[in-house]
Amino acid sequence: MGVPKFFRWLSERYPAISQLIAENRIPEFDCLYLDMNGIIHNCTHKDSDDVQQARISEEQMFIAIFNYIEHLFGKIKPKTLFFMAIDGVAPRAKMNQQRARRFRTALDAERARDKAIQEGKELPKEPPFDSNCITPGMLLPPDVWFSLKYFINKKVSEDKDWQGPEIVLSGHEVPGEGEHKIMEYIRNARAQPDYNPNVRHCLYGLDADLIMLGLLSHDPHFCLLREEVQFGRVKDQHKVKELEHQNFYLMHLCIVREYLELEFQELKVPGAIPMPFDMEKVIDDFILMAFFVGNDFLPNLPRFHINEGALATMFKIYKEVLRKCDGYINENGRVNLKRLAILLEELGREEYRFFEHENEDAGWLRGKKMLEHDEAEIARARVKGKLIISSDQKTLWKTKIRKFLTNRNSQTLDLGTGLNAADRKFVQDLADAAHIEWATKEDDDGRRHLILTFPVRDDEDEEDEEAQSASLRIVKKYDSAQVLDLTGADAQSAMEAKYKQKFQEWKDGYYKDKFPEWAEGKHEDELRKLAENYVQGLQWVLFYYYRGIASWPWFYRYHYSPLVSDVVKGLGADLNFTLGQPFRPNEQLMGVLPDRSKSIVPTVYWPLMTDKDSPIIDFYPRDFELDMNGKKMDWEAVVKIPFIDEKRLLDAMAPKNDLLSDEEKARNDFGVALKFTYSPDVDFEYASSLVDVFPHIPHCHCVENIFDLPPVEGLEYRAGLTDGALLNAEALAGFPSLATLPYTASLGFHGVNVFKQDSRNESMVVNLIGTEMRTKVESAKVKLGQRCFVGYPFLQEAKIVGVSDELFDYVLDGNGQVATLHHGHREIEEFGKKANKIENFYSKRMGILIGPVESLVRVQMLKGLIKTDEGATIKEYGDIPGMETDYASQIIVDEVANEDERFIEKAALPLEEEFPVKSIGFFLGDFNYGQPLEVSGYTNGKLQVWLATLESREPDFAKRIIYESERGNSYMPSYMVAKQLDLHPLALSKITSSYFVKTVGDLRVNLGLNLKFEGKKQKVLGYSRKSQTGWEFSSAAVHLIVQYMTNFPDFFAGVKRNPSGAELKETDLWSDPNLATARVKEIGAWLKTLKTNSMERVPLDAEQLDSEVVMRIAAEADSLKLSAIPTVPKKMNGVPRNALLRPDDAEHRLGNQHFALGDRVVYVARTGKVPIAFRGTVVGISRTPTAKLLDVVFDVTFMSGTTLGGRCPPFRGQTVPSTTLLNLTGRQVVAGSKNQLARQPVTPSVTTLTTHGGYHMHQGKRLQDAGAPSQAAWGRGGRGGRGGGRGGYGGPSQDGSNGSASAPPMYGAVPPPSSLDAPRGGRARGRGRGNGGQRGGQQHNNLAFRPAPQQQQQQQQQQVDGQNGENSRGGRGGRGGFRGTPYAGRGRGGPRGGARGGQGQGQGQQQQQQQQSVAIPPSAS
C-alpha cells in the first residue's frame, strides 16, 4: 500500500487522530514494539541522493542504532514488555515487492555514481553503503548482532527503567517479518484466559501495514509512534534534526475507531441492514477493502488509487452492499465469497465510470449520452450553439445537398418524393438558411417532389460573391452538426451494442497491454487463472494478518491485477494452502537481490548472478522496464523483472552450499527469539562486543533466555473486542476520545489543513453540540479555581484561574470571591483575536466546529508532581512555556473517567523506606553541593550518609572562554552596520539573508549571504542574532560583508540605486545584459566559496555556542584533567531528607532551574544517555513545547556521546532535558532555603548506554569504567581548602584536631559537621573577591542565597566581569566555620576586582568544588 498516501488520506479524512508528543503528556504504555528495520535504515545510511557523502563507519552505525532504540524507549517507557523485532526471512509472497525495490535501488545508485563521475565529482574512496543489505532475512554481521545483545545487557544491568519490563529481541535468524512477529505475539497474548482487555500498546512506525495490524488487534488502547511526516517540498533541508529535537507523533487508533464508526453511522439505524450492527466486524471489512488499493503482496486494482478517492468510493459502495448481505464479508480473517461477489459486482460498475472518463471526447459516447438524456442533452447542445440532425439527414446532406451548394453545376435539385416529414422540415430549414428557394411539385402519378432552386441573379459578380460566402457558412455548420437519432428503438439498441463493444475493447486493451504473453484463443483461460490467483491472494493476506502465515511458498505470479469486474471469475479458486517451509537466509537473499548487490551474499554464489552460463542468469537482468501504470511518482512504477522459480533457484544453489565456510553455514541457519531479564543475584563480567570501542560490563545482572510465545494449544484466537475493554470516554487516562463532549458528525468538503495545505477531499467534520450554553461567561465563572481538562480531544489536566469575555476579566480575590476587571480597548481587541484563532484552529486543523467563542478560560497547566521538604508529592499547577493558557469555555471537560496514576498525590514515605541503606543520591547542602553520596543509617529522624568530598577546587574556565570569545566577536545592531557601511537598512537586510535577482529566462538567483533567516526564525551561530530591538551582526559577519563589497563594488553600487524591497532584474544592476549575466555568475561562484550554507543555523530563541568555542571548552577541560580530581569519603550525621536528591526525584525537584551558557552541571538521573554523576558544561539551551533541552559537552567520553552536530569532540556531547541536570554554577535548590524556586516536573526524555569510561574508535585507547575505591579510603579526612564566598567552607584539619567547644549550629543552608554535637572551632580569616555593585557580597545566614530569575543572568555576567574588572569593590569575606569540621573560619573582605562573593581563606581549608570521576562506596556504584 502506498504508505505516505494512505497516511495522508487517513489524516485528512479523520483530522484529529495524531498527537504531537510533549514529553509526559502522552499516555502510559504497557508494551512497546519496535519494527527494527526502519530504525536500521535510518541509522546506517543517509536518505539522500548525494553520492559524495562519506560512508558511515560501522561503530557510528552501532551507536546510532543504540541511541535510536533508547530514545524511543525513553519516550514511551513501557511498563511490562519491550519487544524489538528484526525482519527474518519473509514469506515467498513478499519477495515480489522486495525484489522489485532492490533491483530499482541498485540501478538508481549505480546511475547516480556514474553521473557524478561524468560530472567530475570527487567520490569517497571507500565503497558506498548498499542499503539493499537491509533485507528480510538479511545476514547481520556478527558484530552487529553481538553489539545489539551487548547493548541490551548493559542497559538491563545499569538502567533502572530497563529492569522492569521484559525485554525481547527477535532477530534476523527468526523467520518472519518484524511487524508480523510482533502481531503474532499480540495474537497469542490475547488468546490467554487472563488477558487484560485494556493493555496499552505502542508500535513504532506508520507503515499502512502497521495501521491495519493495530486495528485488527481490536484492542482499543493502541497507538502508533513515528517521526513527524512532511509532505510536498521540505523547504529546510540544511541539516537533519538531532534526535532530541525531532518531533514524534502518536496516531491514536482509539480515535481512528471512533471516526470509522462515524463513517458508517447510518448503518447503526435499526433496520438499516439485515443483521445487527457490529463495529468490530465493520473494521475487519475496512481492512479487507484497504487491500484492494494495494499492499505488500498484491498489486492494487487498476485505477483504484488512494489519492484519487478509491477508499472513499469503496466506503459508499460498501454501505449499499451491506444492505443486500446477510452478514459481513471478512469473517475474522476468512473471506465470505458469496458476499465478496456482491461487493465486487458493485465495484465493477465503477469501471464504467473509468471507461467513460477516458473516452469522454469520443463522438459515439456523446451520442449515446444524448440518446439516454435526449431532452437535457439537446438543450445543453443548443445552448452551446450546436446543430443537431439525425443520421439519415446527415446522409442526405453529405450525398446530395452539399454537392448542390458547393458545385452549382445545376440550377435545381430534385430530392424526390421519399422524404418523411422530419427530413422535409430539415431541408426546408436548410434552404431558408442558405437563401435557396424550395417548392413541392407533383409528378404525373400525383407524388410530390421537393425541389431546391437557386434564385435568379441580377448582378452576377456581386451576387456571386455573397452567395459564395453564405454557402461556406452553411457548409461549415452542417459539416460539424451533432448526429443524434432521436427516435427508434433500433437506434438505441444499436448504440447500446456499440457501447458494450467499446467497453469490452477497452478491457481487452488493458490485458493486451499488461499481459502480451497471453496466447491468442487462450484469453479467457488466462484471465480465469489471473483472477483465481488474485482471490487466493486476498485470502492469503487475510490469513497472514489474522492468523499467521498460511503458506510460505505461495505468491502472486503476476505484475498486475485483474480488472475489478473480472475478479469474480476467480471466486472458484482453491483456497486451501500448504504451509511449506521458509527459505533459508541465503536463499532469500539470492531471490531478491540484483547482481549489483552481490557483495551482500557469500562469494560462492556470485557466479550464479553474473556468469553468462549460469542456469539462473535470467533471474538477474541488468536492464528492465519500468511501467508507471497510472502512478505519478517514480518509486511507484512497476519493475518488470522475471519472478523467481523456487525449484530452479534451489537446484542451482545446492552445489554451492557445500563450499560455504563454517561461519557462513552457521549464519544460514534459523534461531530463536531471546528474552532479557534483570536479576540482582546474577553478577558477572560481560565481554565487549567490540573490544577496541566498547568496554566490558564488569557487573552484568542480565539473564538471557529463549523467549517462548504465549501458548495457544487448546485456545482460540479472540475475535473482536475483549470483554471489559474500555471505549470512548471511558478509555484509560491519556487516550483521547471525541465522546468527552457531546457532538454530531458528517462528511463534507471542509478544506482541513493537516499538512500545511488545504485538503481537496472529504473530511469527517465534528460539530460540538450544546456549546451555546457552555460558552456563556456565567457558566464559565462558576468553574473558577476548579480542576478541569483542556486540549480536547487530547485532554490534559489544568486549573482554571481566570475567565474572560469581550468586556471583562473574572478572577478570584483573596477571599475566594469573583472579582471583575474591565477591559480596555487593547484587551477587547486581543480577546477577539484569541477567540477567532481558537475557533479557526479547531475548524481548519482539527475539523471540529466549536461554535462562536463568547468566553475564554485561563488555566494553569498541571506541570507534574513536586516533592515537599517533608517528602510528600503534590500536584503543581503553573504556566508552561510554549503551551496555551487560554481555552474556549465550550471545549473544557470537567471530569474524566480514569485518573492518570502518574499524577496522584502521595503522602511522604517513612525515611527508611524512601532512603534505604546503601541507596545513592546527591547532596544539596552548600558544602560539596552536587556531590554523590550513599545512605548509611538514620539518627533522630535524619540521615547518616557517606559523602564523596572533593580534595581540590575545580577551576572556573568556561565563563572565561565564552567572555573572551564574545569580546573578540562583538555584535552590532543592524542599523549601525548599515550606517558604517553606507548601505540602506533594507538593502543590508536583504544582502545578509536572501537577495534574489532575476536572470535570463526569469531564473531567480540568490546573491545573499544567508546569515539570517527571518521566515524560518533562524540565526547563524557566530554571525547573527536577534534581540528585542532587531537583528545584530558580529564582527565576523561585518568582515564578510566588507569583503563582499570590496570584491564586487559595482554590484553594491547597483544595490544602492535600487534599495526598495522589490525583486530586481540583473539589468537593473548592470545596464549591459552581457555584463550583467557574467557578473551574476561570478558573484554566485564567489558565494559558493564562502560555504555559508554549511554554517550552523539554530532557532532564534536558542542559545548556543559555536563549534570553535565548544571545542575550546572541551580542550580546556582535558588540559585541566577535571576527571582526575580525587575525592575523599566523609561521613555526615543529622542530614535532613530534603538535603538529599534521589535520582528518581530529579524531575520533581529540578524543574525550574535556570541555566546559562558556560554553567557547570552534573547529571543526576538514574536513567539516561549520560552516566550518572558525569559533569560537563552547558554549551546550548533550547526549548521544545514543554521541555527545556540543554546541549552539554561532558568532561570525558561516553558511549552515547555525540558531536552535538559537529560542534564538539566525538563521544563528548549530548542533548538532555534540564530536569536531569543539577546546576553547579548557579545553585538554586540548596537545602534549607525557604525561598526555593518552584520545581517543574517534566519527565526526562531519553536514556541510553552509559559508562564511566572513555569511548574511542580504533585510533585511541579504550578507557575502562572507573573502579570503586576501597572501603579503607572512606576513613580518611580531607585536606583543607579555600573557603567559598557565602561563608567559606573549611575541611578537616590536617592533624584532625578540633577547636574549643561551642554550641552546635542549626542546620541551614550549609551542611553540618561530622556530628551535630561536634565542638565549635576557632575563627578563620578569609579573603574574598566580590562584584562591584553587590556590596558585601552574599552574607552568611541559614538561608542560602539565590537570585531572583531576572537577576540570574545579571549575576552570571558579573561573575565574568569580576574576573576582568579592576575597580570593583571587594565583597565581604566568608564567615569562619568549625575547625576540624566542614566549616571554615570567618573571612576578611577581598581586594577590588575578581569573581563573585568573598572567597574565604580558612585555617582548616576545604575546597568547595566539583569534579568528574567520583569515589562512592562500592555498594553505590
TrEMBL record:
Polar residues: bias regions: 1233-1251
Superkingdom to which the source organism belongs: Eukaryota
Gene Ontology cellular-component annotations: cytoplasm; nucleus
Domain named Exoribonuclease Xrn1 D2/D3: residues: 910-1135
Start and end residues of each stretch annotated as Disordered: 1233-1421
Keyword line: Cytoplasm, Exonuclease, Hydrolase, Nonsense-mediated mRNA decay, Nuclease, RNA-binding
Residues annotated as domain Xrn1 helical: 277-670
Keyword Nuclease (UniProt): yes
Location in the cell: Cytoplasm
Biased composition annotated in UniProt, kind: Gly residues: 1275-1293, 1368-1379, 1386-1403
Residue span(s) of domain 5'-3' exoribonuclease 1 SH3-like: 1153-1223
Residue intervals passing through the bilayer: none
The name this protein goes by in its record: 5'-3' exoribonuclease 1
Entry EC number(s): 3.1.13.-
A GO term for molecular function: RNA binding
Function: Multifunctional protein that exhibits several independent functions at different levels of the cellular processes. 5'-3' exonuclease component of the nonsense-mediated mRNA decay (NMD) which is a highly conserved mRNA degradation pathway, an RNA surveillance system whose role is to identify and rid cells of mRNA with premature termination codons and thus prevents accumulation of potentially harmful truncated proteins.
Bias (Low complexity) ranges: 1350-1359
All copies of domain 5'-3' exoribonuclease 1 D1, residue ranges: 720-906
Entry annotated with the keyword Hydrolase: yes
